Amino acid sequence: MKKRAFRLGAACVLASVAISEAHAVSNTKTIRLATFDEPFNDPDDATAKQLSKTEGLTVAEASRRLRIMGELGRLAPALSARFPKGFAGAEATTGSDFRVAIYGVAADLEAIGNAARQFAGKGELASVLDVRTAPV
User: Three-state SS across 104-132?
Assistant: First the structure.
């Protein structure tokens, strides 16, 4: 059986780009960066502002995406623990068509999708959530 990669890469890359750019700001200014604890917290929208510049988004949209990535960061480990052989990973895409994909093996895909949708509820994550068969 092939090893399945846990793909939160896009979420981590976006957050790390935003954070590294925020750290590059003048040393005379203290910047409080976002924390992905529950609930998501981004004092003064510092991380969202940097992400908005990097991705060409409004600050509101960047903040929404960061909140969703925070939710994804809690959902993925829960799915991995519940479906250790069926959950194949998750990723968040960038660009104008921001989506979150949950990947699973065909035999467990329906159950994984149901669990992911239940977790997302009617929140922001639900509006961008896709459940897909893992690529071979």
Answer: ECHHHHHHHHHHHHHHHCCCCHHHHEEEE
C-alpha 26/C-alpha 4 separation (Å) is: 41
Cα–Cα distance between 131 and 90 in angstroms, integer? Answer: 9
Report how far residue 64's alpha carbon sits from residue 61's, in angstroms, rounded to the nearest whole number.
5
What per-residue confidence (pLDDT) applies to 33? 61
Query: What token pair was written down for 32?
Result: 């409080």
- Locus of tokens 């519940």: 82
Number of Cβ within 10 Å of residue 46's Cβ equals 18
pTM, rounded to two decimals: 0.73
Contact by Cβ (8 Å): 64, 127: no
Paired with 131 in beta bridges are: 102
Model confidence over 28-81: pLDDT tens digits?
A: 455 566 666 667 788 889 999 999 999 999 999 999 999 999 999 999 999 999
Type of residue numbered 50: Q
**d(C-alpha 44, C-alpha 120), whole Å:** 26
Tell me, what's the pLDDT at 16? 44
